[in-house]
Amino acid sequence: MPGYATRNLTVQVGGHDYRLRMLSDKQQYADRDGLAHRAGISSAQWCLFGQHWPAGQVLAQAMSEIELGGRRILELGCGLGLSSLVLKHRGADITASDHHPLANEFLQHNAILNGLSPICYRDLPWTAPDATLGRFDLIIGSDILYERDHGVQLAAVMLRHAHPDALVMIADPGRGQRGGFTRSMLEQGYLCCERSPDFGEHRGASRGRLLSYRRPSKLN
């Protein structure tokens, strides 16, 4: 690829192997047209979309097991798109989203690597309302609460795009911002349930949680 190096990785989710094209390391950077800069993505953040993160593995595993039931599903900050690939493989109605200028290119390449048809993708900056996107029954994301204002921004996304009875699932490795998001979700009438799946051996893995949010009237 021009300006940066990639490698392929095979990961197993739900007993199935998925192939991912990813950036070869965290030192890769190429923004010749300034698209990332205009999107507010710094050189230090540029490579993050193109890595396979433990939280992404946790979320993908959850998506391999969750009941689909005809749900319309939105993945936020999809990056390489592992969870979207898993859901597409299962025949789900999945829309992947991100704001990195290369996310869609990597997502669609990874779909081809896994013998899947193209995945619906939307460029979705969290601070810019999109009246054409509609509402979803399940909204998911992994490792997307890593800056102080992300909790409030994501809660606003839920207001705009979650059905009243929607389920929201976030795999969070414990970067310190989930408290603010949970408070914002409680203000919208959601309750939070936490699970502690295996986030691997990376530093701070014991703080990792799979967070599920749903309004109480819809819990039964």
Automatic annotation (TrEMBL):
Transmembrane segments: none
Alphabetical keyword list: Methyltransferase, Transferase
InterPro entries attached to this UniProt entry: Methyltransf_16, SAM-dependent_MTases_sf
CDD domains in alphabetical order: AdoMet_MTases (cd02440)
One BP term from GO: methylation
Keyword Methyltransferase: yes
A GO molecular-function descriptor: methyltransferase activity
Domain of life: Bacteria
Coiled-coil stretches: none
The UniProt record lists the keyword DNA-binding: no
Record's protein name: Methyltransferase domain-containing protein
Taxonomic path: Bacteria, Pseudomonadati, Pseudomonadota, Gammaproteobacteria, Lysobacterales
